């Protein structure tokens, strides 16, 4: 079944399809800690959560898109437990550390292969990543900051509804996290005006600054005056970054890592120190002059992007990130048509680790499947 068929499938057909997949079979074989999940293995819990979604009072009023996002969040929320589960020596307790982090990547990979559109895929992947946060709200030093941060990544409303289904989809006698905590999440998000929308920061720079402060201040409105503008391109090889720049930002000079590698006769598998150093020097020239420019590299990992964003922010530039990801088969075709094509296994490995950018990282964000250029 493909993505369009799965979106229209009944719950029974969806679970039947899932049970034919290796990642689901691994879930069925994965035991859980009885204190949290007396109902049994991961797949047993997942099926209970799927059913609980349909029993939510709010379910009939949700849009078709919202139902799709919640359904596939439920399907994948614990998909990485088989990859992370361990038994503590001595106590015999079963733990699955960082299963949500790894689950985000698994969900993204499966949905990409199914042909899920970029926007929906990222909604689901991020909900998988943060699905456990509401239950631990009161353990945060600044609970309000927590709901504000998450509102820029996911829908707090959908996160709350999923958390309800997740809590109810297990043996309630084994629960140590009361459902009341989830209602507090909803109330705090509503009070902060970010339950059904992202938090309304005063300006783009106020939001950008909030996510970069060690001790964030929601009421701080920094002066919004930029010394320049940087368009940071992000995307897998073959995604069309060069084409996008030619068609959408043709007036901008470009600092391109690929071009610098060619200039220095450095292969992608060689040490990249000299390439990065020359790229930084050229970026600084534009930044010091206040000249708008584009920085073109794969930039598919948040940590990698962060190093360049820190450089641009040090010069008080406005930072726009453009992430491109056409349907995967199209991307592979475009890559093969390049003179310096990247081997397909390398692209697939990069895709598995890919972390598309979010509003936490920049002043402006464009996510595109490449259908508009």
Describe the structure.
By secondary structure, the chain is of the alpha/beta class. The protein folds into two domains: 3-191, Orthogonal Bundle (Hypothetical protein af1432); 228-368, P-loop containing nucleotide triphosphate hydrolases (Rossmann fold, 3-Layer(aba) Sandwich). It is 50% helix and 8% strand. The protein has helices at 3-8, 11-18, 22-28, 42-55, 64-76, 81-84, 99-114, 118-130, 143-151, 156-168, 180-191, 204-210, 241-248, 257-264, 273-289, 302-314, 328-336, 344-353, and strands at residues 86-87, 94-95, 228-234, 254-256, 293-296, 317-324, 364-368. The strands form two sheets. Strands 4-5-3-6-7 form a five-stranded parallel β-sheet, sandwiched between helices. The protein has a two-stranded antiparallel sheet with strand order 1-2. β1 (86-87) and β2 (94-95) form a beta hairpin. α7 (99-114) runs antiparallel to α8. The two termini are 29 Å apart. The model has no long low-confidence stretch (mean pLDDT 93).
């Amino acid at each position: 079944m493909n993505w369009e068929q799965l979106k229209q499938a009944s719950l029974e057909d969806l679970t039947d399809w899932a049970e034919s997949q290796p990642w689901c079979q691994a879930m069925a074989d994965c035991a859980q800690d009885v204190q949290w999940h007396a109902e049994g293995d991961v797949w047993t819990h997942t099926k209970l959560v799927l059913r609980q979604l349909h029993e939510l009072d709010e379910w009939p009023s949700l849009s078709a898109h919202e139902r799709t996002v919640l359904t596939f969040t439920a399907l994948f929320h614990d998909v990485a437990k088989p990859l992370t589960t361990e038994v503590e020596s001595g106590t015999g307790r079963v733990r699955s550390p960082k299963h949500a982090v790894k689950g985000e990547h698994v969900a993204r990979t499966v949905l990409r292969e199914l042909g899920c559109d970029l926007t929906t895929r990222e909604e689901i992947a991020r909900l998988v990543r943060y699905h456990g946060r509401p239950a631990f709200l009161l353990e945060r030093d600044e609970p309000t900051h927590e709901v504000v941060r998450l509102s820029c990544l996911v829908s707090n409303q959908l996160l709350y509804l999923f958390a309800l289904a997740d809590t109810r989809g297990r043996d309630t006698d084994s629960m140590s996290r009361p459902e009341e905590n989830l209602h507090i999440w909803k109330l705090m998000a509503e009070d902060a005006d970010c339950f059904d929308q992202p938090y309304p920061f005063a300006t783009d720079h106020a939001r950008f600054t909030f996510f970069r402060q060690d001790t964030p201040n929601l009421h701080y409105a920094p002066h919004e005056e930029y010394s320049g503008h940087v368009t940071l391109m992000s995307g897998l090889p073959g995604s069309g970054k060069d084409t996008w720049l030619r068609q959408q930002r043709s007036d901008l000079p470009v600092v391109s890592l690929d071009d610098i590698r060619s200039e220095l006769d450095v292969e992608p598998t060689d040490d990249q120190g000299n390439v990065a150093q020359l790229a930084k020097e050229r970026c600084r020239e534009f930044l010091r002059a206040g000249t708008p420019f584009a920085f073109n590299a794969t930039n598919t990992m948040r940590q990698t992007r962060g190093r360049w964003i820190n450089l641009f922010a040090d010069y008080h530039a406005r930072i726009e990130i453009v992430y491109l990801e056409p349907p995967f088969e199209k991307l592979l075709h475009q890559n093969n048509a390049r003179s310096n094509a990247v081997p397909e296994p390398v692209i697939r490995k990069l895709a598995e680790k890919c972390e598309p950018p979010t509003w936490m990282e920049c002043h402006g964000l464009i996510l595109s499947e490449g259908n508009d250029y």
